[in-house]
Amino acid sequence: MESYSLFTDYDIHLFKEGNHFRGYTKFGSHPLTVEGVSGVQFAVWAPNAREVSVIGNFNGWNAHSHILIRRKDDSGIWEGFVPGIEAGEIYKYHISSNLNGYEVDKGDPYAFAWEHPPKTASKVWNLDYEWQDKKWMKNRIKTQSLASPMSIYEVHLGSWRHHDNEPGHSLSYRETAIQLAEYVKELGFTHVEFLPIMEYPFYGSWGYQTTGYFAPTSRFGIPQDFMYLVDYLHQQGIGVILDWVPSHFPSDEHSLAYFDGTHLYEHADPRKGFHPDWATYIYNYGRNEVVNFLISSAMFWLEKYHIDGLRVDAVASMLYLDYSRKEGEWIPNQYGGKENIEAIKFIRRFNEVIYTEFPDVQTIAEESTSWPMVSRPVSMGGLGFGMKWNMGWMHDTTSYMSKEPVHRKYHQHQLTFSMLYAFHENFVLPLSHDEVVHGKGALLQKIPGDDWQKFANLRCFLGYIYTHPGKKLFFMGNEFGQWNEWCHDKSLDWHLLKHLPHAGVKKWMSDLNTYYRATPALHERDFEPGGFQWIDCNDAENSLLCFIRYGLKDSELIFVACNFTPVVREGRRFGVPSAGIWREELNSDSEIYGGSGKGNLGSVKAEPIPSHNMEHSISITMPPLGIVMFKQKKVKKRPAKRKKSVTVQGNKPKTE
C-alpha cells in the first residue's frame, strides 16, 4: 500500500477537537493521481482496529492484499493509496479489531455511492457535474426568508409515480425531474421535500434507516442523476429540501454499528445507545469524531448537491434521554435530568455551522414536544433551527376533521388552540406522510359523510391551512384526494384525476397556491402576532371561524370565514376594518372545484353597522363545509379635471 495522505496537521487538529465539518474532502475514497500514477486514496476512522484493508473485485476481495497504514498521531485514521483502480470500483473495508478477534467487512461511512440494494458494497465515485442553476442559487435568499411564501410538496421518490407500462417500476431520478417539475409548477408549490434519499438497505424504512450519509440511493440512478433532478427543479424555480436523519442508524453488519469491534458511532450502553421503537442505534453525540461525521454530512448535501434545506427527523428522540423508555431503562444526565445535554450541544453546533456557511438555506425540526425555542437562535438560548413542524396542530386539526359535523361544536378548541402558541416558534403546518400510514388511512377516509361531504370537507380544510399562520407542507396524494392509505410499494392513484371531485381538489389546491404566493397577507407575517386577528372564534354552536390576515402593510389584508358544517349560513354579519366593497377572492364551494356554488355573487358591501368591535361590517353567505376569502376592493381615484388654460390676445381672452 502506497504511503500518501490528504490530511494536513491542521485537519487532524480540527478532527480531534470536533470542528472538521468537511470530512468528505479527506475521508472515503478519492480518485487522484500521485506522482504520475492514477489510483484511489482511501481513508477511514477505526481507532480500535488492529488492521484495516481495502477489499474489492480489484484484488479478489483479499483481506491481506491492500492493507491501510495507521497514522501515527493517535487520530485513529487509516489511509492508503491504491494505484490502478478508478471511479466505479466497488469496495469495502475489512476490519480486524483489537478486541475479541472480531473481523468484519464494512461499507465506507463517507462513500459517495453504493451498490444497488440488497448488495452492500461502497463505490468509488467522483462528483463532477456542470450545474445550470446559477440564477436560483443567486436569488434563493429572497425566496427562502421567513417572510416568503413556502408551500412544500412532500415526496417519496419510489412511490410518487411508476412507469405506465411497468407497474411497480419507479421512475429514475432523471425521469422524475421532468415529470415532477412540470407537476409541481402546475400545482404552484414553492418547494419539494424528499423523504430520505441517502442510501439505505431496507426499502420499507422509507429511507429513515440510513447507512450512506454521503450518497443518494442507487435505486433511482447514479449521483449525477440526482444532481440533475435538483438542478432541473432549481431551473424551474422550485426549491429542494431533504429529510436528514442524525438521530439513529440501522444495525446492519455492513453499516456503522460496532464499526471497529467497539461501539464507535453509538453509545455502548443500550440505555443510551439503542432505540427501542426502531431497533436502531443512537449516535454518541459526545464524541467529537461523530459530531464531525454528522455535520459533514449536512454540509455535503448543501455544498455538493445545492440542497436548499434540511428537515431534521426525530429531534425529540435526540433531546430526551427517556424518550420512549420506561423507568429504569434510561440514564439521567449529570444533573439528574432527562435532557440529553450532548445532543443539545450537537444540535446547536449543527445549526450554527449551517447558518454560518449557508445563510440562505433553512433547517427545519421535526420536534413533537413543547421543548422551548426550537426555532430561535442559539445566541438567544434556542436550538437554532429556522423552523419547526407544528405536530400539535397537525394532530388537533386532523382529529377535528374526522368528527361528524354535528359533534364538532364540542371540539372547537381543536381549531382555535393553535393560536395560543402559534408565534412561539416559526411553524410549518404539516399534513405529512405520518398521517396517512400504519392504519391511519388517507385524509378522505378519515373525514365523515357521503362523498360530496368528504370532498367539501377536504377543500375547506386545505383552505383553512393556507390561511392559518405558518408555512405549508402536504404529502403527495393530498393534493387530489387520494382514497387509499399510502403504500411505499405502489404508485399514487393517478387515475382518480379522471373524476371531477378529485380534479376539483387539485384545481382548488393549484388556485390556493397561486393565491397564497401572490398575497402578502398570507405569508409575510406568518411568525408575527400582528399578522393575525380573530374576528369570531367563539361560535362553536355553528362551527364557524372568522379571522383576518395582515401583510406588512396593514392595508394589505385578507378576511377569511370558515363553515365546518354542511348547513348554508346566510346573512352572517362580521365586523371588518373599513368601509367599501369586499371582493370574494376564493370560495371552496365554487362549482369549478366540485362544490354547490353557494357564495356572494362576487362581492359584498361593508355597511356602517358596528359588529365585533368594529364600526363597519359585512353580511355574507357562508357555503356548506366551505371557506371564503375576501379582500377589500381598492377604489381607483379619478384623476382631477384638467383646468382649462387661458391666453390673452389684446383685451379678449382666448380659450384653448
Describe the global form.
Answer: elongated
The overall strand count is 33
Give the termini separation.
99 Å
- What is the fold named in CATH at topology level of the largest domain? TIM Barrel
Task: Provide a brief overview of the structure.
The chain is built from 13 helices and 33 strands.
Which features characterize this protein?
656 residues, six-stranded antiparallel sheet, alpha+beta, disordered C terminus, Immunoglobulin-like, elongated, 13 helices, TIM Barrel
Account of the protein in words:
With 656 residues, this protein is of the alpha+beta class. The chain folds into three domains: 9-123, Immunoglobulin-like (Sandwich); 145-250 and 284-522, Glycosidases (TIM Barrel), CATH 3.20.20; 529-632, Golgi alpha-mannosidase II (Immunoglobulin-like). 22% of the residues lie in helices and 25% in strands. Strands 10-13-16-19-20-21-22-23 form an eight-stranded parallel barrel. The chain has a six-stranded antiparallel sheet with strand order 24-25-26-31-28-29. Strands 3, 6, 7, 8 and 9 form a five-stranded antiparallel sheet that branches. Helix 6 runs parallel beside helix 8 (341-357). The radius of gyration is 29 Å and the shape is elongated. The protein starts with 8 loop residues before the first helix and ends with a strand.
